[in-house]
Predict the structure of ABC transporter permease.
Amino acid sequence: MSVRRILVPTTVFASVAAIWWLAGRAGWTNAYLLPAPSAVVDALSELTASGILLKHTLVSLQRVLLGFALSVALALPLAVLMSTSRPCRAVLDPLLEFLRQVPPLALIPLLILWLGIGEAQKLGIIVLASFFPVFLGFRGGISGVDPKLIEVGRIAGLARREILWRIVLPSALPELVVGLRISLGYSWRALVGAELIASSAGLGYMIIDAENLARTDIVLAGILVIGAIGLLSDLLLRIAISRVFPWLSADLEAARA
């Protein structure tokens, strides 16, 4: 990673923090609605020292990673199936397109009725939020494979399954990588909604509980923690992909949007 790619984001975050601090010092902001950065840091220190932050972070991390893994496990085979089977595509496409237009949070009442108010309902929200980026990315990658490559495989005598594994799937990996990154981000975005109902732990619960107690400093602290963990998880995902598929490094760099 170049110095520029470290320096630019660091400068941006430092500038935002400086403007935030100056606005508070100058009295341009309401200390209740937007506490000073020092108050948020104090809240983070308090939560860390008491162990509350670690407890909520571990619960949320488990939910996000499990929901993300389930969405990937469902999306990848379904994308392959719908890309290679015209009958499956004809049957499932309208249903999936309909579900894609429905916000996952709008399905919370149904998920509560079907799955209860336990972990299954929370995982269901995260899966619904993170499923389509992976599914659409991988399916688009499969559909966009150069027909000439497939024709070369046929000329070489490869069976249909061999063409799929040796040509189609590797060619679709760049789009899959982008879908995975978007999906992981959506998992974190859905977290607060997932922990909104009948939850007693998690960063989303901590934020909502702090709102009820009028602790804006803790609300902001929770938001900062979710954002930081989201950035870190995206970085780790890109590192893992570049280790497993080193030839995708250029695509990972291009997908740094």
